[in-house]
Amino acid sequence: xxxxxxxxxxxxxxxxxxxxxxxxxxxxxxxxxxxxxxxxxxxxxxxxxxxxxxxxxxxxxxxxxxxxxxxxxxxxxxxxxxxxxxxxxxxxxxxxxxxxxxxxxxxxxxxxxxxxxxxxxxxxxxxxxxxxxxxxxxxxxxxxxxxxxxxxxxxxxxxxxxxxxxxxxxxxxxxxxxxxxxxxxxxxxxxxxxxxxxxxxxxxxxxxxxxxxxxxxxxxxxxxxxxxxxxxxxxxxxxxxxxxxxxxxxxxxxxxxxxxxxxxxxxxxxxxxxxxxxxxxxxxxxxxxxxx
Amino acid sequence: xxxxxxxxxxxxxxxxxxxxxxxxxxxxxxxxxxxxxxxxxxxxxxxxxxxxxxxxxxxxxxxxxxxxxxxxxxxxxxxxxxxxxxxxxxxxxxxxxxxxxxxxxxxxxxxxxxxxxxxxxxxxxxxxxxxxxxxxxxxxxxxxxxxxxxxxxxxxxxxxxxxxxxxxxxxxxxxxxxxxxxxxxxxxxxxxxxxxxxxxxxxxxxxxxxxxxxxxxxxxxxxxxxxxxxxxxxxxxxxxxxxxxxxxxxxxxxxxxxxxxxxxxxxxxxxxxxxxxxxxxxxxxxxxxxxxxxxxxxxxxxxxxxxxxxxxxxxxxxxxxxxxxxxxxxxxxxxxxxxxxxxxxxxxxxxxxxxxxxxxxxxxxxxxxxxxxxxxxxxxxxxxxxxxxxxxxxxxxxxxxxxxxxxxxxxxxxxxxxxxxxxxxxxxxxxxxxxxxxxxxxxxxxxxxxxxxxxxxxxxx
Lengths: 292, 461
Ligand SMILES: Cc1cc2nc3c(=O)[nH]c(=O)nc-3n(C[C@H](O)[C@H](O)[C@H](O)COP(=O)(O)OP(=O)(O)OC[C@H]3O[C@@H](n4cnc5c(N)ncnc54)[C@H](O)[C@@H]3O)c2cc1C
Ligand SMILES: Cc1cc2nc3c(=O)[nH]c(=O)nc-3n(C[C@H](O)[C@H](O)[C@H](O)COP(=O)(O)OP(=O)(O)OC[C@H]3O[C@@H](n4cnc5c(N)ncnc54)[C@H](O)[C@@H]3O)c2cc1C
Ligand code: SF4
Ligand code: SF4
Ligand code: FES
What we know:
The complex is a heterodimer of chains A (292) and B (461). With 292 residues, chain A is an alpha/beta fold. Chain A is 27% helix and 30% strand.
């Protein structure tokens, strides 16, 4: 079950895997995620569905090592199997429900931060196949952490790269590049006319999505973010994933993970992500139940 | 003349010892105790206990076999009506069902029907007694959504009469609430739940875990492209409610479902598992049902001081009497007529307390229950590190929203008649998904009725 057919290290901390999951491959849509368990005693870890091929019956995941469970996942090899692999979960991206006719006239801007490039890819690929025009900004700490550059180039109109240290693309933050693009948007420069972006999507670390949201707001462009909250079941049963959106508590696993960025309470979302990190560092590492 | 002895008490783990472990609280009867208790039953000609059991187990008949030491025969009698005796014997609210109607209960103490059923189930498991008689396959496939008691009961009955049955379950372990909700100390997972599920599989029932019906597959795709002639939905009522009071999204506020799922399904109490759980030093549990008791007693076992906060009085507590009694013995504090109005946080966004208001019981409402009303100016704070919300659950709307023509009511419950027939031809439903949160045995009863209705329907087409 759920055999790893291919494994490729994209860089020292990010690994791509193609996993056998025919039922999921046949039903997945851009914007959705899955939950995986690496072994019998493992945690249930949510990961974005980064690609899927229904003819081969495979689903692609890209995992970044941040803690124990993600490390276990990345340590599995080709030929190994996941104990559990469930999905697709969550609502597909909104544009999946739009007609091809409508999409072919639309222009999208994607802002991807670090690992966020992986979940952005299936969305860009889908929109490209529907005839939409898509520009993508990828930001990373340094060139060695850039992923999916070639794949992305093949499916987008313009790709803008920026790194914190200037080791690839321009030196700077995604928000700066985004601002420039949005400022130039709709302008007539010489004989070149910039069309307006219809919609922007930002996926990356919570803090990056927060700053993109702040920076995009003055431009009035519709902005979607994908929230990587804590999750347990991923089906609406526990409420671990709740986030405040538009003043209301919502379950990211069933009502999201994508939400209107301007409605999200990012401060709360970032704090809630740390719920178990603080006990894991406060208490001794072998004491998981918070007894002091 | 029957034995006029008092009800045989059941041996239990010492409250002080068990408050620090997850082993089972009640040891159950041994053979002598069971035979002795069985000798109290009057074997009534018109037994009042039987109609009070939602699956109509032939109670006096199985008890007579227990009395005579024919435990395998007793198990066989129960198996005709229930596939989960070791589960129901442990968790049924017997005091309001079978035992609640036992004739002996009028003047004295009812026969311990639940304990005898548990004994019989446990005995047959320990002695390898299995009931795997079944008709040859009839070539028709039935899909079942959810592996809780409703789904398991429906699958059992259909497999016995020759259907090719597949259960689709979203979680990684089958069992529904038996697996993720009810804790180990009331219902052991390896010995009891797993074995009873193995018995269902031994009838040829296939269980496919990690399938979200509504996303991975849909009811329509199962019927149109996978050759299932009928579907039974037993997807339960798993969606937790919150109070919508300020502070509910602070770090340290969790639903009882999350707390119990981490601890039961994900075995957080066992250090060899990777699952984290946070209990702090003090835990407040809001609510008064079985779920609240289970969350409270689990938190206690993880080392916290635990307070239950409930807005009515002890008399109205919806939890089983036995659970409340056990919780008190173990040292859980009950604060009745108390309702939270706000959860208080510290400067870092973690829970530090619960702002409550005192309540009093007002005039009876339409349902005849006296509803609690706040006492003016009676607010006070309870200091706590964790708040567990246990306010009830409702059915998940996912299946209804992804299946054409499946009717629901305003509580998101699937609409089905007493045989489980929904508004969609060939689609049946039962258990908590139809009734809202109820009991294991009612869910099993609904699964069995639906199995009969599915059989009738498939014979006709
Ligand atoms: C819808 C969704 C899609 C995701 N997609 C991807 C993906 O494609 N690739 C990928 O590498 N990661 C993805 N994540 C994040 C991934 O689930 C977490 O990195 C992982 O659970 C961390 O587990 P750990 O045991 O390795 O780290 P831990 O030791 O548990 O924690 C390390 C850090 O990660 C945070 N964290 C822990 N659990 C989660 C969690 N469930 N979600 C978010 N942060 C968490 C902690 O607060 C801490 O800061 C996604 C999360 C969600 C909710
Ligand atoms: C903590 C707790 C304690 C309880 N204590 C008692 C007690 O002592 N006595 C008693 O009689 N009752 C008790 N109950 C109630 C009892 O457990 C339930 O009434 C009973 O389990 C309902 O059975 P069910 O089969 O309808 O649903 P469930 O047991 O909820 O099972 C439903 C199953 O369907 C699965 N599912 C849901 N949606 C999908 C989907 N889309 N695709 C695939 N699978 C899906 C779920 O994961 C689950 O496994 C308790 C409940 C809880 C939560
Ligand atoms: S199934 Fe429950 S109600 Fe029926 S006899 Fe057994 S314990 Fe009593
Ligand atoms: S009502 Fe009581 S005494 Fe009569 S048959 Fe049932 S269990 Fe026995
Ligand atoms: S992860 Fe449990 S409800 Fe969303």
